[in-house]
Amino acid sequence: MYIPFIEKGLKILKTNGIMCYIVPNKLTGANYSKQIRSMLSQYSILSFRDYSEIKVFDDANVYPVVFSLKKTKQKFQLVFNYLTSIPTSGPM
């Protein structure tokens, strides 16, 4: 269900625009996410945060990840965070 939203976001993203999504961690390994991962690799991934070990939503059985990317030819160093608790202060 989340893949069409990512595709649409990428389509309407302007040059130098930034987008950020919270999606299921299935994005990282599910076979049906392979094509969207390939599309995402064409952009500059600014950050990728894996919250799979944290109960983020009380009423949902989903393991979320959050990513942000920029539509630019310049590549950035990826910041990957695998979190086991939610920080209470400071930058994430």
UniProtKB/TrEMBL annotation:
Q: Name one GO biological process term.
A: methylation
Record keyword Methyltransferase present: yes
**Reactions mediated catalytically:** a 2'-deoxyadenosine in DNA + S-adenosyl-L-methionine = an N(6)-methyl-2'-deoxyadenosine in DNA + S-adenosyl-L-homocysteine + H(+)
Q: Which UniProt keywords apply?
A: Methyltransferase, S-adenosyl-L-methionine, Transferase
According to the entry, every stretch annotated as the Type II methyltransferase M.TaqI-like domain falls at 1-57
Q: Identify the InterPro entries for this entry.
A: MethylTrfase_TaqI-like_dom (IPR011639), N4_N6_ade-DNA_methylase (IPR050953), SAM-dependent_MTases_sf (IPR029063)
Cross-referenced Pfam families: Eco57I
Name of the featured protein:
site-specific DNA-methyltransferase (adenine-specific)
